[in-house]
Amino acid sequence: MLLTSSLRALPAGRPLTCLRAVRFASHDAPQFNEPTGLLFGEKPPPPGFRRIKQPWENIWYYGMYGTMLIGGVLLYFKPDTSIQTWALKEAKQRMEARGEKYKYEPSTH
């Protein structure tokens, strides 16, 4: 009823874009997979047998953990580019150029 009343209100030369949107959006309800209680929906193998890996699993394991290992090594050896390190180095150079000591040494009065 609402659709027919909106069609009557449209001018004759206007394209019916709202009808297309309604038609394309009118599909079935989303599919629901009933939970089975099995991990990833796989049935466990019979006793005495091992689970058969799928061909993509080893690639995923080596790729995921290899990338994490390489990332950890790269982060460990990353150069220190912080502003504090640069400022301390620059201050030491300027103080040495003026002949001042950059380390604090308490006086012995």
Automatic annotation (TrEMBL):
Instruction: Spell out where the chain crosses the membrane.
Output: 59-77
What top-level branch of life does the organism fall under? Eukaryota
Q: Which topology term describes how it sits in the membrane?
A: Single-pass membrane protein
Question: What Pfam families does the database record attribute to this sequence?
Answer: ESSS (PF10183)
What UniProt keywords apply to this chain's record, in alphabetical order?
Answer: Electron transport, Membrane, Mitochondrion, Mitochondrion inner membrane, Respiratory chain, Transit peptide, Transmembrane, Transmembrane helix, Transport
The main location is mitochondrion
Q: GO CC annotations?
A: mitochondrial inner membrane
Task: Tell me if Mitochondrion is a UniProt keyword of this record.
Answer: yes
Q: Where in the cell is it found?
A: Mitochondrion inner membrane
Family membership:
Belongs to the complex I NDUFB11 subunit family.
This protein's assembly is summarised as: Complex I is composed of 45 different subunits. Interacts with BCAP31.
What does the UniProt record say this protein does? Accessory subunit of the mitochondrial membrane respiratory chain NADH dehydrogenase (Complex I), that is believed not to be involved in catalysis. Complex I functions in the transfer of electrons from NADH to the respiratory chain. The immediate electron acceptor for the enzyme is believed to be ubiquinone.
Question: What is the protein's name according to its record?
Answer: NADH dehydrogenase [ubiquinone] 1 beta subcomplex subunit 11, mitochondrial
